[in-house]
């Protein structure tokens, strides 16, 4: 059974007002989170209580969302293009850094550039290499087993063929 409509007016009782604020604030924050997850939406929510306390939620950061909002609403097409260009440039910088990091990791896996690593990093690298070696050996064993099965089948077929030819 549902509740009836609530008359929208200021709650006079201070305690009831605070309880209602807390419950509805939490519900609103939950709805904002659910909207961001379910619909892959970028959501920012800012709430100031009656006492001036700040509550906020940002699916990808409130500041980032506000910046995006300002760029969408307060800039001309040229500024928007410039903003997009800057965004792409930042993305390129991030990708270059990731590429360099991956290259460094690859060199370390090949045994190069190990001088800058401490003991813990070297131990982690050793564990990674041992894990990769184990997987490689397992795959090699699997392939060899499959090849042996194929050769055994051929051997049986040739043996059967040889028997038929002798007969």
Q: Short description, anyone?
A:
With 167 residues, the chain is mainly alpha-helical.
Secondary structure blueprint with pairings:
Elements: H1 14-39, E1 44-48, E2 54-58, H2 62-74, H3 77-109, H4 119-166
Antiparallel strand pairs: 1-2
Please describe the structure with a list of short key phrases separated by commas or semicolons.
two-stranded antiparallel sheet, 4 helices, mainly alpha, 167 residues, elongated, 2 strands, TF_Kbox, transcription regulation, TF_MADSbox, DNA-binding transcription factor activity, protein dimerization activity
Describe this structure in words.
Keywords: Coiled coil, DNA-binding, Nucleus, Transcription, Transcription regulation. Residues 85-167 form the K-box domain. Residues 119-164 form a coiled coil. One of its GO terms (cellular component) is nucleus. The protein is mainly alpha-helical. A two-stranded antiparallel sheet has the order 1-2. The chain has helices at 14-39, 62-74, 77-109, 119-166, and strands at residues 44-48, 54-58. The radius of gyration is 33 Å and the shape is elongated.
Give the fraction of residues assigned to helices. Answer: over 70%
Q: What general outline do the C-alpha atoms trace? A: elongated
Please list the strands of the largest sheet in the order they lie side by side.
1-2
Rounded average pLDDT = 88
Oligomer: single chain
> What gap, in angstroms, lies between the N and C termini?
89 Å
How many distinct helices?
Answer: 4
Approximate strand percentage: 5-15%
Largest sheet: 2 strands, antiparallel
GO molecular function: DNA-binding transcription factor activity; protein dimerization activity; RNA polymerase II transcription regulatory region sequence-specific DNA binding
Main location: nucleus
GO cellular component, one term: nucleus
InterPro entries: MADS-box/MEF2_TF, MEF2-like_N, TF_Kbox, TF_MADSbox, TF_MADSbox_sf
């Amino acid at each position: 059974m549902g509740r009836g409509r609530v008359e929208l007016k200021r709650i006079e009782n201070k305690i009831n007002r605070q309880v209602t604020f807390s419950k509805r604030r939490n519900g609103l924050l939950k709805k904002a989170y659910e909207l961001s997850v379910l619909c892959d939406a970028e959501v920012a929510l800012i709430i100031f209580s009656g006492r001036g306390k700040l509550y906020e939620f940002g699916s990808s950061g409130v500041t980032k969302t506000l910046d995006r909002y300002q760029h969408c609403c307060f800039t001309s097409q040229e500024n928007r293009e410039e903003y997009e260009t800057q965004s792409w440039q930042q993305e390129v910088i991030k990708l270059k850094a990731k590429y360099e990091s991956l290259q460094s990791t690859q060199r370390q896996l090949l045994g190069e550039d190990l001088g800058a690593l401490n003991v813990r990093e070297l131990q982690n690298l050793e564990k990674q290499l041992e894990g990769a070696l184990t997987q490689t050996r397992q795959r090699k064993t699997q392939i060899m087993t499959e090849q042996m099965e194929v050769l055994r089948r051929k051997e049986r077929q040739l043996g059967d063929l040889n028997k038929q030819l002798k007969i």
